[in-house]
Amino acid sequence: MSTESLVSKARAICEQNGARFTSIREKVFRLMAENHGGQGAYELLEQLKQTEPAAKPATIYRALEFLTEQGFIHKIESSNAFMLCQHFDKHHPAQLLICEKCGNVTELHSATLDAEFSKLASALGFHIHRKTIEARGICRQCHGN
Predict the structure, then answer these.
(1) Nearest alpha carbon to residue 37 among 94, 89, 102, 133
(2) Which residues does Fe cation bind (predicted)?
(3) Global pTM?
(4) What is the rounded CA–CA span in Å between residue 99 and residue 138?
(5) Are residues 103 and 123 in the same domain?
(6) 14 is in an annotated binding site
(7) What is the pLDDT along the chain (145 residues), one digit of tens a residue?
(8) Is 85 assigned to a binding site?
(9) Does residue 89 lie within any of the structural domains?
(10) What is the count of structural domains for the chain?
């Protein structure tokens, strides 16, 4: 999907939710849409400063928090990075495969895995507020290298 169509879809969802898709939030969203894999906040901040020289760490963190709350991005907890969710128009379980060699992140959506994980947590009396399952390894492209 093109960056423009992703931005249009995100803008429509924000209007639907009564949320403000400000120019800074849109710029950060565009940066995420134009890159694949995980990106750290400071990496994004440096890119944002090319068009917004006055941007500070708080600027990027507020934008990332908003984009996460809207379901537009996933936080990769193990590397403290963020990636665009390609399926943000519907709520879905997310499992991430992270290549330790090239940094590519593949998003999976297994309802079966999600249900089993939730069932096991519930059996232990654990109430999940947010979950992203991450697995690290070597992707197909890097495996042959």
Answers:
(1) 102
(2) 91
(3) 0.80
(4) 5
(5) yes
(6) no
(7) 789 999 999 999 999 999 999 999 999 999 999 887 789 999 999 999 999 999 999 999 999 999 998 989 989 988 889 999 877 766 677 899 999 998 888 888 888 998 999 999 999 999 988 788 999 999 999 987 6
(8) no
(9) no
(10) 2
